[in-house]
Amino acid sequence: MSVDLTLKIGGGAGQGMQTIGYVLCKTFARGGFYLFANQDYMSRIRGGHNFFQIRVKEEPVYALSEEVDILIALDKATV
């Protein structure tokens, strides 16, 4: 069975989504997986809602998936 996993992290600005996304990407890459990541953020210094999405596969990946397998919600607005 091949791995094709999409994770989405959502929360308010300043809650550390960029850091969480970076650590997860580095972890999967070190595990030998291919990944595609995208960060969506508001154009405010603090405030607003942000997402970090990662798709992980055992073969090269060139786009995100609309399906989300794992949702990490750091606030109620994410759900």
Q: Which CATH class applies here?
A: Alpha Beta
Instruction: Give a short account of the largest sheet.
Output: 4 strands, mixed
What CATH calls the topology is Pyruvate-ferredoxin Oxidoreductase, domain 3
What is the CATH architecture annotation?
3-Layer(aba) Sandwich
How many helices? The count is: 1
Overall number of structural domains: 1
CATH superfamily: Pyruvate-ferredoxin oxidoreductase, PFOR, domain III
Number of DSSP-assigned strands: 4
Q: What is the typical, i.e. mean, pLDDT?
A: 89
Strand content: 35-45%
| General form | elongated
Radius of gyration: 13 Å
N-to-C span: 29 Å
List keywords for this structure.
4 strands, 79 residues, elongated, 37% strand, Pyruvate-ferredoxin Oxidoreductase, domain 3, alpha+beta
Question: Can you put this structure into words, describing what you see?
Answer:
Keywords: Oxidoreductase. This is Pyruvate/ketoisovalerate oxidoreductase catalytic domain-containing protein. Pfam families: POR. InterPro entries: Pyrv/ketoisovalerate_OxRed_cat (IPR019752), Pyrv_flavodox_OxRed_cen (IPR002869). It comes from marine sediment metagenome. The chain has a single domain, classed as Pyruvate-ferredoxin oxidoreductase, PFOR, domain III (Pyruvate-ferredoxin Oxidoreductase, domain 3, 3-Layer(aba) Sandwich), CATH 3.40.920. The protein has 1 helix and 4 strands; from the N terminus they run βαβββ. 18% of the residues lie in helices and 37% in strands. The longest helix has 14 residues. With 79 residues, it is an alpha+beta fold. The termini are far apart. The protein is elongated. The mean pLDDT is 89. Strands 2-3-1-4 form a 4-stranded mixed β-sheet, covered by helices on one side.
